[in-house]
Amino acid sequence: MSGGPDARRILVVLSEQERELFFPGDLRQRLGALVPESRWKPPMETSAWRELLHAEDPEILLGAWSLPPIDGKLLAECPSLAFLCYVAGSLRSRIPRTYWQRGGVASNWGNVISNTVAECALTLALGCLREAPRYCHGMHVEKIYPSRDCPPPRSLFNRRVGIHGFGNIARALVKLLAPFEVSIEAWSVPVPPEVFAQTGVRQAASLLDLFANNDVVIDVEALTPESEGSVDESVIAALKPGAVFVNVGRGKVVDEAALAKRVVAGEISVGLDVYASEPLPADSPLRGLPNALLFPHTGGPTVDRYPACGRAALDNLDAFLAGRPLPQEFTLAMFDRAS
């Protein structure tokens, strides 16, 4: 394939909000230099989407959350599609794996948001150890200093930390944990032992051992058929009294009902950013507890990091147009492991 951007069949499908979030200022100008605004399309209904793709048969497609999915039948009607430049995260709901099998290439935000999600995990862990939910409720709602009978705050320094999952977020988290001089071990079925060894992290003997042997357990595992519900009642029961469990991965990896029982009983503390059902139901037993720090799925990217995701998408688009390797390529292996 040859020629500059104008010679390539490129479609950009973004909502106006996505344009503002991902491509403000000079990034919008840079996108405009690569793709004329006449080739920018708003999100559309399924029938209009099918008509557009059938008529255009694009070589390159750039989009984010509002990008309508491409099923197997529609993919067959787009024989020229060679590069899907996705500005956001997982592509599992956007395009089938047969796209890669026929030679297609894709990219996403890759490790651009890993640091912010890891930062969220660290925030939740520290908040739980420091009794943030209990103290905030006392200071703001009850307008009292919590009594000396309350559990005292604890430190993260020199703790044993377990990580369930070992992708980009987990590896970013390992770096953030370094100043706390913690002992780290991890567990993830798809990850070979040498990957753990390369980062100096111990591989746990099993998921059950990971939960049983650590003071703080942080879940960043992707949601796959194998991982769904893997943190079951027996694994949750293995958490030692006073342990902290943090989840910034996927809610459905965890048996939320079993987790709630231990939190309600006051046996453990939790810091959660993801849930089995989102938004978290108003009557969830996790709400209103002094040992539960709850975030509304805001782990990443934070609002100030969206432009970095847009910049990464443009870097990937530049690389594809120039025939270079993609900085944030999303491979078939990643597709099979992703949520």
How do the strands of the widest beta sheet line up side by side?
Answer: 8-7-6-9-10-11-12
State the end-to-end distance: 32 Å
**Second rung of CATH, namely the architecture of the largest domain:** 3-Layer(aba) Sandwich
- Contiguous low-pLDDT stretches (5 residues minimum) are none
Q: Approximately how much beta-strand content do the residues carry? A: 5-15%
Structure summary, number of beta strands: 12
Largest sheet: 7 strands, parallel
Give, in order, the helices and strands.
EHHEHEHEHEHHEHEHEHEHEHEEHH
Helix tally equals 14
Net shape: elongated
Looking at this structure, what is the CATH superfamily of the largest domain? NAD(P)-binding Rossmann-like Domain
**CATH top level class name of the largest domain:** Alpha Beta
**Mean of all residue-level pLDDT scores:** 94
Helix content: 25-40%
* CATH level 3 topology of the largest domain: Rossmann fold
Tally of discrete structural domains? 2
Query: Class by helix and strand content?
Result: alpha/beta
Give structural notes.
This protein is α/β, with parallel strands linked by helices. It has 2 domains: 5-109 and 303-337, Rossmann fold; 113-294, Rossmann fold, CATH 3.40.50.720. Helix content is 36%, strand content 13%. The protein is built from 14 helices and 12 strands. The protein has helices spanning 16-22, 26-34, 46-56, 72-76, 98-101, 114-129, 132-141, 168-177, 193-199, 207-212, 233-237, 256-264, 306-322, 332-337; strands at 10-13, 40-41, 60-63, 83-86, 105-107, 160-164, 183-187, 202-203, 216-219, 244-247, 269-272, 292-294. The strands form 2 sheets. The chain has a 7-stranded parallel β-sheet. Strand 4 (83-86), helix 5 and strand 5 (105-107) form a beta-alpha-beta unit. Helix 6 (114-129) packs across helix 8. The two termini are 32 Å apart.
